[in-house]
């Protein structure tokens, strides 16, 4: 994976398709263009060209070709894009032709983005935003991913890091150069004041209830309840297909059946689970174990029961996150007053007529919105972000707790905090501290 290689890959989706995009990046890109189309086209202009097999000069395709000289390209290197007719044979022939150009090879997964990162075009959080944008299933996920690709977290973290390095420089200057005379006295107090503000900002960013991660992963709703209550029928009715097996035999569902919904932009993962009961059947026992586990980890549980038999209550650990859904209300005499045995909301549905399903879905969407949030995009969207920011805040707490102790320990904790932020954005340059000292205090003579 040497960066002096030139790499190429099919960047568009699965062929055959109307158009296929093949990208090339690296120092031999101009050579590759010369070999395949006989020239290097005008930079950043769409050029129609005949793509030829370099040795035989046989025409492979008519293509639109783009040339983006580095460093002003996406990867920061010389790059080119071939917009081909998206047939398998066309793509195979073009990839083979590119492989015959000296210094060119197929790209590894993610290698274009990796090159962009190494060239400083994207920090790590932007790289993650790009990955999330490609994986986004719903509008809310797309908006969050795009804001991260545009640097929502990366720029904020970089700003925090810069301010931290300034504070650190003040403390280090006091330590290392205090006998040189040109460092102002009383550096520690302003540095620690700065650190307090920073620590509070980072803590506030962390106090988001995990909504960014929840939006990325989807709001998880488990359907649980006694056997034969109509759980699988409810799931099937919601997704309008036979996703789960339904039968009059109690204990039908064993595996957890997972479906993904887009409720007006909110990603919701719905889980159908085995009916909860004591059983001697080892396979069903495993199903019940999985049902309890997934319901235990869900953001919300739909406790499903037959409207005619509402005696079972959810297990203790999920009761506070459960809504009750009473099913089969199409059957005579089923619907009665809600004599609620658990606190959450009550719904009455029929998988046969569809009654009550729109109300349930509207409530799920509202709940997902409330728990995931629709306003400002979240700063923290991955466990990695949370860990790095927690580490930073913890190191700042320690630094502040040291204020009456040793300046060296304060400096060390500030260093650790800056390193955590550096890790967050994917760069940890030690030179920065000295740079700031020299700039602000003119010590380096
Ligand atoms: N009339 C009527 N019958 C229903 C309704 N929902 C489910 N049933 C019937 O109830 C029986 C059990 O339905 P399932 O959806 O398999 O129930 P389950 O809760 O998934 O059962 P297990 O997987 O065994 O725990 C089937 O015969 C369904 O046809 C409903 O809304 N109305
Ligand atoms: Mg079932």
UniProtKB/TrEMBL annotation:
Q: Which cofactor does it need?
A: K(+)
Q: What is its EC number?
A: 3.6.-.-
The record lists K(+) as bound by: 228, 247, 249, 252
Residue sites binding Mg(2+) per the record: 232, 253
Q: Which residues form the TrmE-type G domain?
A: 218-369
Picking any one GO molecular function of the record gives:
hydrolase activity
Instruction: Describe cofactor binding as the record notes it.
Output: Binds 1 potassium ion per subunit.
Q: Which domain of life is it from?
A: Bacteria
The record's subunit annotation is: Homodimer. Heterotetramer of two MnmE and two MnmG subunits.
**Biological function:** Exhibits a very high intrinsic GTPase hydrolysis rate. Involved in the addition of a carboxymethylaminomethyl (cmnm) group at the wobble position (U34) of certain tRNAs, forming tRNA-cmnm(5)s(2)U34.
Q: Of which family is this protein a member? A: Belongs to the TRAFAC class TrmE-Era-EngA-EngB-Septin-like GTPase superfamily. TrmE GTPase family.
Name under which the protein is recorded = tRNA modification GTPase MnmE
Q: What is the lineage of its organism?
A: Bacteria, Pseudomonadati, Pseudomonadota, Alphaproteobacteria, Hyphomicrobiales
Name the encoding gene, please: mnmE
């Amino acid at each position: 994976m040497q960066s002096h290689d030139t790499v190429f890959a099919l960047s568009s989706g699965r062929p055959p398709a109307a158009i296929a995009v093949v990208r090339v990046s690296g120092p031999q890109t101009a050579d590759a263009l010369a070999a395949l189309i006989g020239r290097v086209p005008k930079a950043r202009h769409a050029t129609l060209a005949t793509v030829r097999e370099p040795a035989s000069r046989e025409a492979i395709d008519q293509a639109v070709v783009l040339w983006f000289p580095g460093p002003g390209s996406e990867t920061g290197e010389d790059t080119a894009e071939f917009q081909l007719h998206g047939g398998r044979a066309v793509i195979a022939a073009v990839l083979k032709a590119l492989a015959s150009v000296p210094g060119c090879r197929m790209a590894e997964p993610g290698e274009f983005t990796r090159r962009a990162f190494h060239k400083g075009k994207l920090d790590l959080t932007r790289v993650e935003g790009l990955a999330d944008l490609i994986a986004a299933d719903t509008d809310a996920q797309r908006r969050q991913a795009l804001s991260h690709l545009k640097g929502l977290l990366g720029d904020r973290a970089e700003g925090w890091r810069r301010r931290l390095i300034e504070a650190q420089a003040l403390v280090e200057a006091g330590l290392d150069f205090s006998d040189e005379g040109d460092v102002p006295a009383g550096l520690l107090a302003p540095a620690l004041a700065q650190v307090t503000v920073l620590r509070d900002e980072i803590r506030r960013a962390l106090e988001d209830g995990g909504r960014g991660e929840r939006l990325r992963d989807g709001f998880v709703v488990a359907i649980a309840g006694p056997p034969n209550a109509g759980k699988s029928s409810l799931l099937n009715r919601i997704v309008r297909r036979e996703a789960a097996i339904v039968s009059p035999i109690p204990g039908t569902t064993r595996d957890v059946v997972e479906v993904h919904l887009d409720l007006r932009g909110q990603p919701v993962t719905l889980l159908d689970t085995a009916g909860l009961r004591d059983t001697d059947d080892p396979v069903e026992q495993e199903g019940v174990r999985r049902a309890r586990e997934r319901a235990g980890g869900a953001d919300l549980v739909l406790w499903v029961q037959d409207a005619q038999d509402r005696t079972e209550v959810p297990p203790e650990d999920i009761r506070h996150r459960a809504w009750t859904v009473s099913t089969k209300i199409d059957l005579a005499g089923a619907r009665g007053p809600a004599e609620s045995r658990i606190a959450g909301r009550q719904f009455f549905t029929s998988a046969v007529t569809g009654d009550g399903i729109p109300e349930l879905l509207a409530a799920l969407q509202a709940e997902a919105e409330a728990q995931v949030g629709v306003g400002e995009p979240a700063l923290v969207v991955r466990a990695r972000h949370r860990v790095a920011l927690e580490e930073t805040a913890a190191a700042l707490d320690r630094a502040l707790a040291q204020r009456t102790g040793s300046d060296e320990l304060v400096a060390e904790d500030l260093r650790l905090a800056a390193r955590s932020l550096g890790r967050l954005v994917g760069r940890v340059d030690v030179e920065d501290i000295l740079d700031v000292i020299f700039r602000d205090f003119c010590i380096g003579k």
